[in-house]
Amino acid sequence: MAKLRILIVDDTETWRMLVAQYLRPMKEVEIVGQAVGAEDAVMKCRELLPDIVLLDISLPDGKGVDVARRIKEIDRRISVYLYSAYELGEIRELAVDSPADGFIQKSSLKAELQSVLRAESERRGATPKS
Predict the structure, then answer these.
(1) How would you classify residue 49: left for phi > 0, otherwise alpha for psi between -120 and 50, otherwise beta?
(2) Predicted TM-score of the model (pTM)
(3) Where are the domains of the chain?
(4) Helices 13-23 and 109-123, packing angle to 10 deg
(5) Longest Cα–Cα distance in the chain
(6) Rounded CA separation 94/91 (Å)
(7) N or C: which end of the chain has fewer CB within 10 A?
(8) pLDDT 10s per residue in the chain (130 long)?
């Protein structure tokens, strides 16, 4: 089974490390890189072509919604999931016309990431191990 290749994008090192720490033990995923901002994320998407980008909605050099649009221009098959500490309703307001594939609230990251990984694995023809 091919692993889901993931790029983590957040300007906060602590948050990137937390997400990576959670994902690293999962056999069905591979963290292919981390990015600290909008331009870094776009560059790494071009270079690495990840399956999934976990993207902070608010970056110092750009909005996650705009970055998601640029990533989809690179390759529409890349799944982009915006995440935020904002309440879900606020995220939806910020990203009404977003090309993102979904939204994750930071406070429920683990549960929501499990759902995302399961859905992405099924969509790509693989079944994740729980």
Answers:
(1) left
(2) 0.89
(3) 4-123
(4) 60
(5) 37
(6) 5
(7) C
(8) 689 999 999 999 999 999 999 999 999 999 999 999 999 999 999 999 999 999 998 899 988 889 999 999 999 999 999 988 766 666 666 655 678 898 888 888 888 899 999 999 888 875 544 4
Domain 4-123 maps to which CATH number in 3.40.50.2300, 3.40.50.720, 3.40.50.10330, 3.90.1150.30?
3.40.50.2300
Q: Please report the sign of the dihedral spanned by the C-alpha atoms of residue 64, residue 70, residue 71, residue 76.
A: positive
Residue type, 43: M
Residue with tokens 């309703």: 89
Q: How far apart are CA 96 and CA 129, in angstroms?
A: 33
